[in-house]
Amino acid sequence: MREERIHPSALKEGGVPLVTCCISAAEQASVPITVHFDHGNSKQDLLEVLEMGFDSLMVDGSHLPFDDNVTYTKYISSLAHSKKMLVEAELGRLSGTEDDLTVEDYEAKLTDINQAHEFIDTTAIDALAVCIGNVHGKYPPSGPNLRLDLLKDLYGLCSKKGVHVVLHGASGLSKEIIEECIKLGVRKFNVNTEVRKAYMDALSSPTSKKDLIHVMASAKQAMKAVIAEKMRLFGSSGKAC
Secretion signal: which residues (predicted)? Predict the structure, then answer.
């Protein structure tokens, strides 16, 4: 299944017209596409999102103490499920930067397998975004250092409870790491940095034409090339869902 993701910063800029446009595009697509609200770390934003027609949302309480994250996620999860929406949540916290939100390394923490038991049972979420050493944005020059042993344990828990495993920070991960993560149960990868970089590089290209329409078309083609590559890497190319 393909997913259109709208981040809080994008929602702030585009508002309801942006959401309506994305929903319309998804409905007219030739393959199944869902429209997802990503990293909902504001209760007010999420309460508004519940009324906008999204298919799913992410409750991001990763900045909160564990008990508060549970309470926050449970509350939104209950409301979302009453509207037939799927719910993703994050346990642990990724370092890095995404959409102007930066989490320093010292604030990041891995997903605790023991807390995950309680978190899943209490919140009734459908998908868990895990923190196993993955980061938002660019990985350091030394490359990614993922705790695949932790991923294996988390998938063992999630699979028993009918919860999907999500990996944010998939930009920059090698083919070998992606394939191993798929074997260990990851069913959704979030890619943002590489797609955005392709767009920005196209805008600043010396060969970029001056007419706005042509510049935008070139930038979109650059993004599409990266997305197609990622779909092949994730094993979803040529599949309806």
Answer: none
Q: Do residues 36 and 4 touch, judged by C-beta distance below 8 A? A: yes
Hey, which residues are catalytic here?
Answer: 38
Backbone region of residue 131 per phi and psi (left: phi > 0; alpha: psi in -120 to 50; beta: other values)? beta
Residue 103: per-residue pLDDT? 47
pTM, entire model: 0.88
What count of residues does the chain have?
Answer: 241
pLDDT at 54: 97
Stretch (H or E) spanning 80: helix 66-82
The sign one gets for the Cα dihedral 239, 147, 165, 38 is: negative
- Whether residue 76 contacts residue 43, with contact meaning beta carbons closer than 8 Å, is answered with yes
Indicate the helix (H) or strand (E) that contains 122.
helix 113-123
Residues 211-233 have pLDDT tens digits of 888 888 999 999 999 999 999 99
What tens digit of pLDDT does each residue of 119-165 get? 999 999 999 999 998 987 788 788 788 999 999 999 999 999 999 99
Residues 65 and 9: their CA atoms lie apart, in Å, by 24
Q: CA-CA distance, 197 to 224, in Å (whole number)?
A: 12
Three-state secondary structure of 30-79: CCCEEEEEEEECCHHHHHHHCCCCCCEEEECCCCCCHHHHHHHHHHHHHH
> Do the strands 96-98 and 101-103 form a parallel or antiparallel pair, or are they unpaired?
antiparallel
Average pLDDT over the chain, rounded to whole?
90
